Amino acid sequence: MTPTEPLLVVDRIAKNFGGHQAVDNVSFQLAAGAIGGLIGPNGAGKTTLFNCLAGFLKPTSGSITLGGQAIAGRGAYAVFQAGLGRTFQIPRPFPEMSVLDNVMVAPSGQLGERFWANWLQPARVREQERKTLEAARYWLDFVGLTALADQPARILSGGQRKLLDLARVMVTQPKLVLLDEPGAGVNPALLDQIVDKVATLNAQGVTFLIIEHNMDLVASLCNPVMVMAQGALIMSGQADTVLKDPQVIEAYLGTTA
Ligand SMILES: Nc1ncnc2c1ncn2[C@@H]1O[C@H](COP(=O)(O)OP(=O)(O)OP(=O)(O)O)[C@@H](O)[C@H]1O
């Protein structure tokens, strides 16, 4: 990747389910350091596009590059290793595991998980585990869940699960983070916290792409904003322009206001 090349380049991505075109030749680019917003009415294809970006679905056609590396169709683990982290619309932590352990298990390829590494390099394994514990504690503190670190994750509220999901993603040190509806089902106080955490991380250089229906959140955080309707990208640009556009209002409300 050259310094001027966008971090994420999505080129004519399509995804068909049987005869249904859920994503219709979507192309856009996202610069390193941006917080992109992806909006559109229910069923527009946003989550399907996210699943293609994150390697959970193989696109029917098109290409995706992250940091200059081709990632389309390479599978979730390869995409994760290329530096993409994601959260889910409905986070599902391991319910009986402690909040801290849920963050500890997020990083992949830990030496301790490999039998021969344990056998041959115990000091290196211990050092790796110490670093992971330190990082997990750091990110739990960052999202404000330290007081709940030893509790089972099942006791967390919906909003706290979103914060835990963010800590689980950040401990893997991603270049690009996809957030799937961070504001959904979250009370206003926790929503402010989530917005604040995303802004802080972005100021530290983390790039985001966010699916969101809460337009206040989109207006306060996102630039550029991309709009999908019926699988296609119908508009992209500055938040204040896009959110006022009659075509966008029509896509959401089915009529121009
Ligand atoms: N696995 C699947 N098999 C068949 N159709 C699917 C599948 N996943 C999604 N779809 C269809 O693709 C279309 C796009 O769905 P998608 O969930 O991507 O929309 P969305 O924009 O994320 O909606 P929402 O805002 O409600 O989450 C919908 O018509 C949906 O029914």
How would you describe the overall organization of this protein?
The chain is an alpha/beta fold. The protein has two domains: 8-93 and 172-253, 3-Layer(aba) Sandwich (Rossmann fold), CATH 3.40.50.300; 96-155, no CATH class. It has ten helices and ten strands. The protein has helices spanning 46-53, 76-81, 99-104, 115-120, 122-142, 158-170, 188-203, 215-221, 239-242, 246-253; strands at 8-17, 20-30, 35-39, 61-66, 69-70, 84-86, 176-180, 207-211, 225-229, 232-237. Strands 6-7-8-3-9-10 form a six-stranded mixed beta sheet, with helices on both faces. Helix 5 (122-142) crosses helix 6 (158-170). The protein is globular. The model has no long low-confidence stretch (mean pLDDT 88). The structure holds adenosine-5'-triphosphate. Adenosine-5'-triphosphate (ATP) is lined by residues 17, 20, 22, 40, 42-48.
What is the straight-line distance between the termini?
43 Å
Extended strand count: 10
Unreliable residue stretches: none
Strand order of the biggest β-sheet: 6-7-8-3-9-10
CATH topology of the largest domain: Rossmann fold
Secondary structure category: alpha/beta
Describe the sheet with the most strands. 6 strands, mixed
Please, what is the CATH homologous superfamily of the largest domain?
P-loop containing nucleotide triphosphate hydrolases
Overall average pLDDT: 88
Organism: Rhodoferax saidenbachensis
Keywords: ATP-binding, Cell membrane, Membrane, Nucleotide-binding, Transport
GO molecular function: ATP binding; ATP hydrolysis activity
Domain ABC transporter: 8-255
